[in-house]
Amino acid sequence: MDYSEFANFLKERARERGFNIRRLSEVTGVSAKHLEAIFSGNPERLPSAPYLKGYLSRLGEVLGFDSEEAWQQMKVLAEARGSGKTDELPKNRFSRKPMGGYLVIGVVAALLLAYFGFRFYKISGTPVIMLTYPSENMTVVYGNYISIYGKVSNSDEFAVNGKQIQPQPDGKWEETVMLDPGINSVEITAKKFLGRESKIDLQIVYVQSTSTPENKNF
């Protein structure tokens, strides 16, 4: 995957979860300076390899992506960045210059690798479920149903309590769940083609009230 594409992916994931650089720095413990470098899309600004791996791990926990997979794709750039020009072998001034055709082949090969790397991530990455309502895992309602809604991304299968749901093109979804008196469990799942899965478990408490006949979700 091209590093600029990965940086754009991080920016979009942070935006979806309501993080700016300052807030993300507070939550992950990664300095704003290093976050700005990682989000810049410029591989020349990347921290050295050992630091970058740790930063990706913290970002993966907060932004919900596979940090180890991202590290495997990014570490070549990071190691090249950290090695510096002093690690280059001496050049032989008598060697024949490479032909232009080899340069073209190398560029095409790099583009193909970047494309298939990105496609592999899209196929095997972890789905992301964002819950708009209810905003807490334990919610009390006074009606016998609740409308749950939010947004899902990078998912091939999406379900609420085992019922398959087709999200809108922008990933938004909504489902009404009928409730029994007392505690009701609601399971929201999103899966990828190659088996990766994200899940949210909710507890909805339906309190019957003879004085409040209408539904009052809050």
Descriptive account of the structure:
The protein is of the alpha+beta class. 40% of the residues lie in helices and 24% in strands. The protein has helices spanning 3-16, 21-28, 32-39, 49-63, 67-83, 100-124, and strands at residues 128-133, 138-141, 145-153, 157-160, 163-164, 172-178, 182-191, 197-206. The protein has a 5-stranded mixed beta sheet with strand order 2-8-7-4-5, with no helix packed on it. A hairpin with a 2-residue loop joins strand 4 and strand 5 (163-164). The longest helix is centred in the middle third of the chain and has 25 residues, at 100-124. The radius of gyration is 24 Å and the shape is elongated.
The string of secondary-structure elements, in order, is HHHHHHEEEEEEEE
What is the residue-averaged pLDDT? 79
Spatial strand arrangement across the major sheet: 2-8-7-4-5
Q: In angstroms, what is the radius of gyration?
A: 24 Å
What is the 3D shape? elongated
Q: Find the CATH topology of the largest domain.
A: 434 Repressor (Amino-terminal Domain)
In this structure, how is the largest beta sheet organized? Answer: 5 strands, mixed
Main structural class = alpha+beta
* CATH class categorisation of the largest domain: Mainly Alpha
What is the number of domains?
2
**Counting H and I runs of at least 4 residues, what is the number of helices?**
6
Give the assembly state of these chains: single chain
Tell me the helix content.
25-40%
What's the architecture of the largest domain in CATH terms?
Orthogonal Bundle
Distance between the termini: 43 Å
* Spans of at least 5 consecutive residues with low confidence: 84-90
Strand content: 15-25%
Record field, number of beta strands? 8
